[in-house]
Amino acid sequence: MSTASGNVEMLTPAGWWLILVGIPLVLFILSRWIWRFIIWIGFMNRMSRLRLVLQSTHADQMGGLGLLYSAQFSFGVIFTAVGAMMSSILANDIIHSGLALSDVQWEIIGFVLISFTLSQGPCAHFSVNYLALNDGT
Question: What is the C-alpha to C-alpha distance for residues 87 and 108, in angstroms, rounded to an integer?
């Protein structure tokens, strides 16, 4: 991304593209997905407090909650994209910095646990609020 001429490093056109277009674009898209996720958490929290009457014969074959499945499934795309970015950074560190895979194992385990917790967290509102509404019975 940069070339060294004497003591001065100069950016190549690819480096300028990364700084001026690539990084801002990725940050913009990622911030929009984070905002959507925050709104989704609020929606799931409010919806979980409703006394729902589920119908087993509903056309979506999920008692009327098929919307939640398809919307929750769409957040897997963002976790996949962030995982791909993280894996490319870790692969670059392993190849060029001489790190071993065991040196970055905790970053990988942490990402998997955090992404699983974040992806399944909004659904946990239903369990917690069900127990609260039915007094634990």
Answer: 8
Given this model, what pLDDT does residue 132 score?
A: 63
Q: To which residue do tokens 């790190």 refer?
A: 99
Q: Does 131 score more than 70 pLDDT?
A: no
Tokens of 38: 């925050």
Strand partners, 10: 3
Contacts of 10 (CB under 8 A, 6+ apart): 2, 3, 4
Separation between Cα atoms, residue 74 and residue 61, nearest integer Å: 19
